[in-house]
Specification:
Radius of gyration: 16 Å
CATH topology: Ferritin
CATH class: Mainly Alpha
Number of helices: 8
Number of domains: 1
Distance between the termini: 33 Å
CATH superfamily: Ferritin, core subunit, four-helix bundle
Helix content: 55-70%
Largest sheet: none
Strand content: under 5%
């Protein structure tokens, strides 16, 4: 799958140190991946509850939530086969860090939340693609199978942001790209799917 549009959208590639940390922490990667899929579904449903007057958003978010919950089930199934217990994890600073720049009133708030959604889906897609060639066959095939839906989710979020805004969204994209770059490149204390690089070994 051609991911050039994803790579062009993101402000930087994932650091190789994060890839190394992911390979060294595959149990945590899968647990946090499951949490990410569940959170993505929850976010989509929250948007549906808050913005009931936007038919296209309702349609897109309903489909997205179903897909994310299906991915959640698939991750859990892989974890069960591998004897990995699904448990609580502290969240990474990624989503909270991005949300610091969200404006407080609508429609600006909605535009910003949708832009964050686009960055999260694009970064997930990029990381699945980067990891797949380095993983065992089962996990590689699964991550490759996610690329198409993650790329579509990124495109849906970005298009919905443009539709929700009464002005060009490029300045806001620049704000969140700068934030995303800092979060992806700066060192984290704990490995998570959306963390920055972490010191090895853990």
């Amino acid at each position: 799958m051609n991911l050039s549009h994803i790579e062009a959208f993101l402000p930087c590639p994932t650091p190789s140190a994060w890839i190394e940390a992911a390979l060294a922490n595959q149990d945590i990667m899968l647990i946090d991946h499951a949490h990410c899929e569940k959170k993505a579904a929850s976010t989509a449903i929250s948007l549906m509850y808050r913005y009931v007057d936007r038919p296209r958003l309702l349609d897109k978010m309903s489909r997205l939530a179903r897909e994310e919950l299906r991915h959640f089930e698939q991750v859990l199934a892989i974890m069960r086969k591998r004897g990995i217990v699904y448990d609580h994890l502290s969240p990474s600073r990624y989503a909270a860090g991005m949300r610091k720049a969200v404006r407080s009133s609508d429609p600006q708030r909605l535009v910003d939340l949708l832009i964050i959604g686009a960055f999260i889906e694009a970064r997930s897609c990029e990381r699945f693609a980067a990891l797949a060639p380095k993983l065992d066959e089962e996990l590689a095939d699964f991550y490759k199978s996610l690329l198409k839906s993650e790329a579509r989710h990124y495109e849906d979020y970005l298009q919905l942001a443009r539709e929700a805004s009464d002005e060009p969204i490029e300045p806001r994209l620049e704000v969140f790209a700068a934030l995303e770059r800092e979060l992806v490149l700066s060192v984290d204390s704990e490995f998570r799917f959306h963390s920055g690089p972490v010191p090895l070994p853990q």
